[in-house]
Amino acid sequence: MYDYQFQAHFCEPVYEAHHLHCTKQDGEVAFTMRQIGTWLTLSSVFCRCSQPAEVTSISYTHGIKPTDIAFRGVFYEMTCAPSRECRTDESCFIETPSSDGLLYGGKVMCMCPKKTFCPIYFIGKKRVPFKDSQQRITHYGLKCKQRSY
């Protein structure tokens, strides 16, 4: 279940002759976008999608504390590869802290089932810390949340 879909229109052609169709393999980045305020700009194009693309990772301009309640996403990597549906016990989005303890971005792990959503853009106080056997935090995860409608 998608939170939303949009169709972008550009002033100039996006694809060039060397842009082949994407293979839809896991990890393949089709294109990248950058958000500046309410503007979303196309940064790079690597291949053509024949269907809607999905966000695969989000990066932040600078490191943020895990307690930060605002969404700071600025750079988006998009893929044509279809995402699998999340299980109830797994995170839909994970952020791994750097050696300085700050978060520099996260990865979309799966798509939330119908009637739920991944609260990436409403991240405030929803990060769940995951720890290893030495009780060190390995990553933070977001779980799918029930929709209110």
TrEMBL record:
InterPro entries: DUF5731. Residues 1-107 form the DUF5731 domain. Pfam families: DUF5731. This is DUF5731 domain-containing protein. It comes from the Eukaryota. It comes from Hydatigena taeniaeformis (Feline tapeworm).
